[in-house]
């Protein structure tokens, strides 16, 4: 997952190392947390469930269209050469695309803590993620049509086994004799950006759809300012809702770090100030 959250962790570590007192860690669950409403929506809103259900229903329609069109690819950068006769595949992110990780976010809100790699790995090993509505049915449908289902995730190699165990238990299709679970850093050039992993898949498969909750699940050009990200969005207008399907996730992601330019050396308060400055606001008149 989650460069932005790792950054928050690093920034608080740096503050502590500099001798400047870090903001007090709240033990009081009543302490305001900027993520409260987002996590509440993600975990309890029927609107969230309805939205995800709709997106996977759309994905099913698009999958059928893609199977019928040999020129269709969802990976315009990575899918090179003559791919028409390659077997079909879809590429899906895991966290908050297929698995709802809000139990971890909710734990942080209640505990007054933030993401750390240690607590995140412990959380993954507890195997308490729930399914995003529509995700199992969609991936099973794809597999039933002979489409290879690839999971491209920034969970780490250490987190792979408990994740695959849980996903299998929940009903997500496996790859048979093909390794379809591509975790971060499994290969030296498999960084957080996912283009190199899409390229490996695109060599042997025609990629029909990309499904994710973060701009980085679709393009490596996800780390810019809000304005730069808007341009990436506009430049890829033909993909959204066509061969790129987005599941809404307001709880974390590259949108959150964009206003402070992913500068994780800033304190949480400084990052928050820049996020507020990024808001377009009515002047009250
Ligand atoms: Mg994700």
TrEMBL record:
Keyword Lipoprotein: yes
Pfam families linked: Acid_phosphat_B
Alphabetized InterPro entries for the sequence: Acid_phosphat_B-like, HAD-like_sf, HAD_sf, Lipo_e_P4
Keyword Lipoprotein: yes
Stretch forming the signal peptide: 1-26
Keyword set, alphabetical order: Lipoprotein, Signal
Gene3D superfamilies assigned to the protein according to its UniProt record, in alphabetical order: HAD superfamily/HAD-like (3.40.50.1000)
Protein name per the record: 5'-nucleotidase, lipoprotein e(P4) family
UniProt source species: Labrys neptuniae
Taxonomic lineage: Bacteria, Pseudomonadati, Pseudomonadota, Alphaproteobacteria, Hyphomicrobiales
